[in-house]
Design brief:
By secondary structure, the chain is mainly alpha-helical. The chain is built from 20 helices and 3 strands. GO terms for molecular function: 3',5'-cyclic-GMP phosphodiesterase activity; metal ion binding.
Length: 499
């Protein structure tokens, strides 16, 4: 007999609709798996089941809905049992097709019981890798998303787009501790929609909901299936920018056009990235490098793709703006996205340091530099997040780096030193970067906004300590191995060859 699925049980318990987003929290407030191995709860140690995004007009699910539709679940189960019995009597044995159906049901049930979080969009992906694993099997996927893949996510996003996201999640979305790994792509699009709504862009710029939804879908579609610079990275950068806007109270210091520029720049900043950086583009003389004359080829391409999307009426979130507003926004987005080219890092940081002592929010030049600094901080902010969120991102980044250095070796191109899998270790890739790039940048921003010290600088210092200790441990292991090898060689020399 087919047992009632876990999803229906939990949806019934939460009185949730078919497209609502649910999460299960442990007593510490962490999102946890739903499985048969869950510890029993008690009055002093309660789990929390929450509908974090709901359609206020949806009907109740489960037995109530079944009753409303005229279904009697109990009689249906009895009928199934009777059918199974009749088949067994008439056929003498259970047909292979029934075994196959049961196998599929059991497989589905297993996914339900081991799902990483209570979002039923996650039921159809392979979760066997465990918690917080990097993007799955990119080497087996096409670079560009398939039409089927896009339509699947689009359908789910549109089903969920009218959900009302809970206040708790809306507040969590404003913090640097937000865990992106717990959200599916369609859910992420809902969260991006929330950002545009809660910053009052929908009203201020007369953005129609269906146009915003089409814009976000096109953004999703144009991020590629690569380990790091993918749609989830786009979300993380945008979410950090969103968090910084709220943490620093920029709504009271800058006008809404500047805020719209910053958020949209973050959304668009790595569109159609193929996983190979500017150095590779230039050395390999790719089409992008030739088109943009070796000047920030990737960043120029990201801008071009962004405005391709915005040129389409159905996805142009700026279509109701005046010509002057559009011109200002286009100029600002281009400036912000081009600022993410790391070869310009020192140039932009030095500009910011020069104006910092007399920073003036009424000065457009000052604001422009700050906007470039904010997108730069957001772009490389993973180490400001909790380690369980940040470390899987480093694994993704190293995979992309190693893919590039392997390709450079195969094509006889100069090998990018910090990407060489034969020379770079996980901790060595981070210690220098944090010490000489991240911290100096973050500290200067915190000089303007002291409140950021605890939110982004303290976590980065902890990350530096973590990777420094890891590097020392690896070095000790290397020395011990060398001593062991030398001892073996010395022993072989002393004993000499046997006759």
């Amino acid at each position: 007999m087919v047992r009632r699925s876990f999803s229906d049980l939990f949806r019934s318990a939460a009185e949730a609709g078919p497209h609502d987003i649910l999460k299960l929290y442990n007593p510490k407030g962490n999102i946890i798996n739903i499985s048969l191995s869950l510890e029993p709860n008690s009055p002093n140690c309660c789990y929390k089941l929450e509908v974090v995004a709901a359609d206020c007009n949806s009907e109740p699910l489960g037995a109530e809905l079944a009753g409303a539709l005229g279904f009697d679940l109990s009689s249906m189960e009895k009928r199934l049992q009777g059918l199974e019995k009749n088949i067994l009597i008439e056929a003498g044995e259970t047909p292979a097709v029934v075994y196959e159906m049961k196998k599929q049901v059991e497989s589905f049930q297993e996914k339900l019981e081991s799902v990483e979080h209570l979002s039923w969009l996650g039921l159809f992906k392979n979760l066997s890798e465990g918690t917080h694993k990097p993007s799955p099997f990119y080497h087996k996927r096409t670079l560009h998303k398939t039409r089927k893949e896009c339509e699947h996510v689009r359908e789910k996003f549109l089903q969920m787009s009218s959900l009302k996201v809970s206040e708790e999640v809306r507040q969590y979305l404003k913090t640097p501790t937000f865990d992106n790994w717990q959200w599916e792509d369609a859910e992420i699009m809902v969260l991006l929609q929330v950002m545009y709504t809660d910053l009052d862009f929908i009203v201020a710029f007369n953005i129609e909901p269906e146009v915003l939804q089409q814009f976000l879908f096109e953004i999703y579609r144009r991020y590629n299936n690569i380990p790091f610079h993918n749609f989830k990275h786009c979300f993380c950068v945008t979410q950090m920018m969103y968090g910084l806007i709220w943490l620093t109270d920029l709504k009271s210091k800058m006008d809404s056009v500047d805020l719209l520029i910053m958020l949209t720049s973050a959304v668009c900043h790595d569109l159609d990235h193929t996983g190979y950086n500017n150095a590779y583009q230039i050395n390999a003389r790719t089409e992008l490098a030739l088109r943009y004359n070796d000047i920030s080829p990737l960043e120029n391409h990201h801008c071009a793709v962004a405005f391709e999307i915005l040129e389409k009426t159905e996805s142009n979130i700026f279509r109701n703006l005046s010509m002057d507003q559009y011109k200002r926004i286009r100029e600002g987005i281009i400036k912000c996205i081009l600022a993410t080219d790391m070869t310009r890092h020192n140039e932009i940081l030095n500009q910011f340091k020069a104006i910092l002592p007399a920073f003036d929010f009424t000065n457009k030049d000052h604001r422009d530099v700050l906007m470039m600094i904010l997108i730069k901080v957001s772009d490389i902010s993973n180490e400001a997040r909790p380690m369980e969120v940040a470390e899987p991102w480093l694994d993704c980044l190293l995979q992309e780096f190693y893919n590039q250095s392997d390709k450079e070796k195969l094509e006889g191109l100069p090998i990018t030193p910090f990407m060489d899998r034969d020379k770079v270790t996980k901790p060595s890739s981070q210690t220098g970067f944090i010490r000489f790039v991240l911290l100096p940048l973050f500290i200067e921003l915190a000089n303007l906004f002291p409140c950021l010290e605890q939110h982004i600088i303290d976590p980065v210092r902890k990350a530096l300590d973590y990777y420094t200790e890891m590097e020392k441990a690896l070095e000790r292991e290397k020395q011990n191995r060398a001593q062991s090898d030398n001892a073996v060689k010395s022993k072989e020399t002393t004993v000499g060859p046997q006759s």
